[in-house]
User: Fold this.
Amino acid sequence: MVEKLDKKALWIRLKEYHFDHIVPPSLWEKLLALYEGIDSATVAFADKIASKHKWNRSFALHAISEYKKFVYLAVVSDFQVTPSKIIDVVWHEHILFSKAYREFCNLVIEYQLDHHPELFAFDEQTDRFRAQHEKTRALYHFEFGKEPPENIWGQTKYQNSLERSTTSVQDRDSAVFYGDSTIALETTERPLHSLFDGNERALFEGPDGDIIWDGHTSSGDSDGDSGGDSGGCSSGCGGCGG
Assistant:
């Protein structure tokens, strides 16, 4: 985790990021003619993902908004976070715009968020990805004050995935409880949601936090490097990380 990180400023930068970096200068005029509004690049990105993975636009937009939350968790965590299958699809698609992704890491999150896909599946690594995914969900609840949406966060990529418990998640002294198991979060930091007062809630939630998105999950995969449903991946920053 970055020392003395301004979590509030990081989140605002992510909320206000509209994927403009993925648009070549020569395409802006055509893009604005096709997509009206300040978030035209995001909608175009959502449409590209939706078309490729047989999602609808609203589900793709929801997945992108949750991807931003995953990125936030990756930067503030003191361990390597692991995405769900849906979020990993968005992450892969973002990385494919390699120059834009570098600019995103350098200018928006100020952190080199590397992708570490699984080369091949074996039990020890799969168990590690599963544990990291659960801990990532726990950190989500701690930071955002609510459970991650199951239609985005519930489906994992690693094989022999266990069905998730439907027990409600509770935050208590930086520990999160899933059924009979406890996931401790070693942090004394205030959670993100507590840093916004009533007058600033729009900066925290925004429209993606209030809209109920419809949609369906994809049965396909994003790239060949993920290894289908048997694969997994985690975040990192070169030599550092959990």
